[in-house]
Amino acid sequence: SSSSCRLLYLHYFPGSLEIDSLCCFHLQDFKLEFGHHQGRTSSVWHGGTATIAQSPGDEVWGIVWKMNICNLSSLDKQEGVEDGIYVPVEVNVHTQAGKALTCRSYQMKDYVSGPPSPQYKKVICMGAKQNGLPTDYQEKLEAIETNNYAGPVPIMEEIEAAVKAEKINSA
């Protein structure tokens, strides 16, 4: 098919790419982790950012987006592949209906574990709620420890404004 599935594991997704459809998935034997690439804290989020790590018995829930393969380079760029922070990986996921899909995802290279900022966690929890991920998984996300960063996070304001605008448009 001309579109490649990509697993959006809780990254904020600016709507700049052509997206066809989406559904909930779970990725078995992986867990959600937060870290700093080469030990450096994200200057955007002021804390650890998300990645997936192999972990037998665990699972990660998220959204599968169907997108055009010609958007792959812009997706890679958005995910920090060019900067050597994330590397694309192929993973096998299952939808809630049990359908198996092979998807593209991204794993952080060479990272040191560290908690996310409360703002980054909030975006992840907002995304999980908005996309109807299982309630017990949402509770797990709510329980994530943060680094208690209380300074400004300009991107957070942009995201909240975009979410508000979306609510107004869909009302």
UniProtKB/TrEMBL annotation:
<dbReference type="Pfam" id="PF13772">
    <property type="entry name" value="AIG2_2"/>
</dbReference>
<dbReference type="GO" id="GO:0001836">
    <property type="term" value="P:release of cytochrome c from mitochondria"/>
</dbReference>
<feature type="binding site">
    <location>
        <position position="120"/>
    </location>
    <ligand>
        <name>substrate</name>
    </ligand>
</feature>
<protein>
    <recommendedName>
        <fullName>gamma-glutamylcyclotransferase</fullName>
        <ecNumber>4.3.2.9</ecNumber>
    </recommendedName>
</protein>
<dbReference type="InterPro" id="IPR017939">
    <property type="entry name" value="G-Glutamylcylcotransferase"/>
</dbReference>
<dbReference type="GO" id="GO:0042803">
    <property type="term" value="F:protein homodimerization activity"/>
</dbReference>
<dbReference type="InterPro" id="IPR013024">
    <property type="entry name" value="GGCT-like"/>
</dbReference>
<dbReference type="InterPro" id="IPR036568">
    <property type="entry name" value="GGCT-like_sf"/>
</dbReference>
<dbReference type="GO" id="GO:0003839">
    <property type="term" value="F:gamma-glutamylcyclotransferase activity"/>
</dbReference>
<feature type="active site" description="Proton acceptor">
    <location>
        <position position="79"/>
    </location>
</feature>
<dbReference type="GO" id="GO:0005829">
    <property type="term" value="C:cytosol"/>
</dbReference>
<keyword id="KW-0456">Lyase</keyword>
